[in-house]
Amino acid sequence: MQVKENKIKENFHKVTDESSPKSKLAKNCVYAFIVGGLICDIGQFFYNLLISNGVSMEDTSTWVTIIMIFIGALLTGIGIYDKIANFAGAGTVVPITGFANSIVAPAIEFKKEGYILGVGAKMFTIAGPVLVYGIGSSIIVGVIYYFISR
């Protein structure tokens, strides 16, 4: 009985190894690094442009965030961001443009269900938990900081 089980496990592992796609980890990491770096370079370009035009550092940070979210949402809306993401993987998820994509993509997908039950309800399916936990944890840290600094 034990020999038969071992033979079945052996065959299972052999079939699994043969049919599983080969990992392209190194290539995927390089693509993610390059595309993620390019996204950051675009953000840095806007940062330098705003600073050189006399915008304060604080305002520049806000404007760069707004610009990058807009670019991510726009590219998602016209179908380009998904193609970039298929090529670069995590290189497009980590920057703030990935956050914009995570909000816009479900909204576009469920648009046919209407603006209230489709776009409105599904827009925050992915980003919602991030916002809830981010805001919730910032409130908790703020309260703790308030009581410690008294």
Explained architecture:
The protein has 150 residues and is mainly α. The protein is built from eight helices and no strands. The longest helix is centred in the N-terminal third of the chain and has 28 residues. The protein is 83% helix and 0% strand. It is extended, with a radius of gyration of 23 Å. Helix 6 packs antiparallel against helix 7. It starts with a helix and ends with a helix.
The level of helicity is over 70%
- Residue stretches low in confidence (pLDDT < 50, at least 5 long) are none
N→C terminal distance: 71 Å
Could you give the order of the helices and strands?
HHHHHHHH
Beta-strand fraction estimate: under 5%
Number of strands: 0
| Helix vs. strand class | mainly alpha
Quaternary class: single chain
Quick structural gist:
The protein is an all-alpha fold and about 150 residues long. It has helices spanning about 1-20, 25-50, 55-75, 80-90, 90-95, 95-110, 115-120, 125-150. The radius of gyration is 23 Å and the shape is extended.
Question: What topology does this entry show?
Answer:
Blueprint: H1 2-19, H2 25-52, H3 57-77, H4 80-88, H5 90-93, H6 96-109, H7 115-122, H8 127-148
Helix pairs in contact: 2-3, 3-6, 6-7
Features:
150 residues, mainly alpha, 8 helices
